[in-house]
Amino acid sequence: MRLPAIDHPRRTLVAALAACPLLAGCASAARRGQLAPDDQVLALRAAGLGLYELAAGQLAQAHAQRADLQAFGRLLVEHHGAANAALLGLLQARSIAPRATLPAYLERRLASLQPGAEGFDQRFVPIAGLQDQERLVALHEDAGVAVIDTALRRWFSGQLPALRSHLAVARSLAAAPAA
Asked: Which of 11, 60, 87, 152 is 20 to 30 Å from 141 at the Cα level?
């Protein structure tokens, strides 16, 4: 199997996840209505990132000076609120309880967005706007192909149009002149 030219860690993840159906443990987990271990890792990662996106969107609504950035925050809150609820339903149906709090690395990332001496808008757009949206799109693209569980794969793939739209908005925010 020839993988597309992507960075080494993603290529390794995609290859490992693509091989998962060949392993008896993954196949038997899928038959029992549970998630294969790699599916569970991706689903829980997506759940944590969804919480982060909600919190980042709320920060933008509360602290952004630019109206377009406040609107982007509302967009993030609305979309990720609904997406997180759908993912939670999928996980609960498989007896998996995601964390109710952010993982430490996402807490640190969120803390870096907090208003400070440097303007909030200038920090938010490159971090939560561009970097985070690019990473979300990449995660969902990879998981939409690699995940074994049909409903979970459909959830990942189904989020892509909105996530790509978020990335397009973030790019336009980055290109807009500072107020």
From this structure: 60
